[in-house]
Structures
1.
Amino acid sequence: MTDHPPPSPALLPAGMRDLLPPDAETEAMALAALMEVFASHGYGRVRPPLLEFEDSLLAGNNAALAEQTFRLMDPGTHRMMAVRPDMTPQVARIAASRLGGAPRPLRLSYAGTCVQVSGGVLETDREVSQAGIELVGADSAEADAEVIAVGSEALAVLGLRRISFDLTVPPLASTLITEFGLPEPDRAPLLRALDRKDGAAVQRHGGALAPVLNALLLAAGPAARALEVLRAQPLTPGARALADRLAAVVAAVERRAPGLRPTVDPIEFRGWRYHTGVCVTVFAAARHEELGRGGRYVGPGGEPACGLTLRPELLLRAAPARPTRSRLFLPFGTAAATAQAMRAQGFGTVAALDLAEDDLAEARRLGCTHVMRNGRAEAL
Amino acid sequence: MSALSPTEALMPEISAPIVLALPKGRILDAVAPILRAAGIVPAPDCLDGDSRRLRFPTDDPGLDVIRVRPFDVATFVAFGAAQIGICGADVLMEFDYPEIYAPLDLRVGGCRVSVAEPADLPPTDPACWSQVRVATKYPNVARRHFAAKGIHADIVHLNGAMELAPNLGLSRLIVDLVQTGGTLRANGLHETEVIAEISSRLIVNRTALKTRPEAIASLIDRFRAALAEGAGS
């Protein structure tokens, strides 16, 4: 019996990765730029911990997070702790507890790393970074629209312009089905069929509701057309209220950010399943992944809230390449004051630790873009 | 390469043609009349099984066609390499990609995914089974089907000639695509249960539908109109 050769020490668990220069710096700068936009709109930054007790993180509407959560035991209390797979529930908890007395509406922003048990089909990262905002204590179309408009401004700062904002109302389908009184055994297969936009299965399980649902399925697309279909279809009262709210949000978004041109998908309900109202999914035209996602939910204690969570590493992959810092080779013995002056100009200086035979060759070997010669930075 | 390098940045898709993935073989013949009725005219050698080309232009510069194995149609569409495709519902059941929407039943390529076993096997009550060994090219479908009955399916994953497995002692039964049942009978098997009736579906990549809604919706509409005219049935 022969053993396999020992694994390479460079091998990381699936979905984990090292970021190298200059990417790690680019990511940090991009994240700072995103957070600056959030701060400029009055969103105060919070920093929840990586771990918290499982029963508080997964309480209430957050139960759907459980299947994506790593857990470990706290040796002190013998309680189970959870590594956060998503930060929104943490921010909602802070808003309801430690900041429960803060004036409403409360605007909070956050950035951090989350870990999920499994990656997606397309995008297999399990360590995912998040940067987002939550607007707590306001239940209006204006609040929904503000979160989307601020998010769109943050994306523009990264140079992402061909972005598609897809507005959805996750509870609409289930409300329609429940209020219509569709037989219980048909509901689960019908919701699944709707999730996959499987026209044939909707026909099979939808009963009298099938024509309405199929019309809504195919309405996905530019907002004006989708809203028109929603208006024309006979909806139950609860579903109609949700559709009206969606129309109000679209109008408010178009008022605040005229260039945004959202799309609408009335029947989509993907996500963490804690959402209770209008939601948004962010796509880049050139990419296959979702760049972010957000929407309306009810926080602990029943407080209305909405938010948007972006995925900085995906944003950077979709964004145009950012200029990296120029690297300037300083030959051995360059005066400290000169070096300082060059750094002030924005160079990253690479100082020789001893006399080099050929400064030019040494500068090239170390990946510099410039070399200090005759008191000036010369491009290589 | 690193996550942020420009080499990894995908080509902008807006100007790129939409790619339609078609399955080689049986379904392709059945789908040809629908393509014709939908006004999709691929290069002549596309529908000819002997061509070695894999990617074909159509009369519309905004639409290309690729021809791949039926199981791969779903993968190409799920990963967004093709925005739209045609494949059997059996493939969708097996892979269950959340990134695939299946808005239209093309009502061609009709067959079924069934359980079959040797005709001369003494009858037993499956309710008593804890586990059963199944030869199939649909491991997920088979596992789910038996798990729902409380039976653990030990899967022998084969890519063809499933019908040999029970009589050579590889498995007790098989889960396979059945069209007429002729192959089963010729190999001494009989169908004991239908898991699902299958037909071909028009499938769409989720992100493509969200980011290029007009182009994708107009293609879906052309297929729908072709079906309404009675093409394919």
2.
Amino acid sequence: MSDVIRIRDLAWRAGKEFAIRDLSMTVPSGAIYGFLGPNGSGKTTTIRLMLGMLTPADGTIEVLGHAVPKFAHRALARIGYVPERLHLYQSLTVDESIRYHRAFFPGFDDAEAERLRRHFSLREDQPIGRLSKGESGKLMMMLALAQRPELLVLDEPTDGLDPVIRREVLSALVEYVEVQKATVFISSHLVHEQERICDWVGVMDGGRMVAELPMQEFRSGIKRLRVANAPGTMDAAPFALLSREALNPQLDEWVVRGWQPEMREWFGRSGAEVRDVYDLDLEDSFVELLRGARATTIANGAN
Amino acid sequence: MFNQILLTQFKWTRITLASISVVVFLAPAAAWRLGGSLGQPGASAIISGFSGIGPVLAMFAILGSFMLVVQPWQMDHAARHVYALSLPIKWSAYVSLRFAAGAVTLLVPTVALWLGSLLVLSMLDLPETLRGYPGALALRFFIAALLTHAATFLLQYIAGKKAGIVVLLVLVCVALGMILLEATGNRAVSEQIGRFLVEWPGPLSVFAMDWKLIDV
């Protein structure tokens, strides 16, 4: 399976406040890749770097086999992009916007655009500036899907939409992916929404990639453990410790990533015992991942 | 692709375009009336009137083409240029197409001025010694507008929303330079620079030289 997006050691800086640091990411072909992270973590900036809208200070970006930003225009011809905010010209009508968009994308499917326009109940003569947030979201999704792209890049596509419209937009997306076998890169901070549709997850925080793993692993590999007589050091631990907290002098609570039942032996070797193992739901896993990453960053900064 | 960019250019600037076109279409007639009110008959009235209307035409060429750049740029800027940057076309190609579309729209007031000039000339019986130059006047208007369009476009797309500050800085530098030259007794240098700019073939000569519809 080839990779549709491959980013290595990406760096970018905006003033003193915000930076993308050492970001590497791989999106396999055909994946629905959920790009998770809290607000302000750098998701939109990463997407803009990925599409050639910003120039990286360091690192390499390859999208659909094209080096970005140098050949971003070639990659963009095969990408359907839906940004977090309406980016279309507000003075145009829906119909004018379709015609404008079509002129730039040779593979634009008129019949599909018309079908989606009707499906989304968008009137041809509606001025874009007067569309509601939901209608704007549907129009952007419609244009992106009618391009028949190999890769869809969606930046918070359902943020602020009501549940009915959100479902309409997501079902149109899923239908397209099923038929076209396209790759989807979808950024969001809505963890449960990602859980429903994604098969890969990348988690970003503070301009860094905290974790990148298959959804199945994300869903089942992060556990909360109750550990009696917990060891002080983590020598050769077969899992990643995200956080630890002493409940009392004899009992610790650990949150670990990559947990497998046979790893109990590792505790046994140091005289500790795993009393209980709890499953975390996706949102808790996400929060623990972020907490672990932030603790590591602080510890590295202190050293 | 260019057709669509041109269509948006027309849509965004249609009010400015229509206003300038009406003004420049009426300019030759206004010159005739202005000269006539000063007691000059026929062709002499137009010659006399153009001494007042000519600078107005130059001003409209500058102001109009400035607006024709700024309005489309603001449309892109409203979405922080995200749409333009997400299109599968090099940024340089996109900017070139926008520039070309702006240049094409300048033809509308140019044609309006040409038609207005032809109309006025058709109502005159020119003496043997005089000739009307409606085409040359319209071409001059187009070149002046195109020059302004190019300069404004370059500034707007390089400096972005800081374009106003850049213009202000340039004007301050020019003013300071002139004051310095005057203060150090180098007035001849500033005059030489001025002449270089506004006398043919200086870059601003198209604005400064006489705008005439009728000449010997």
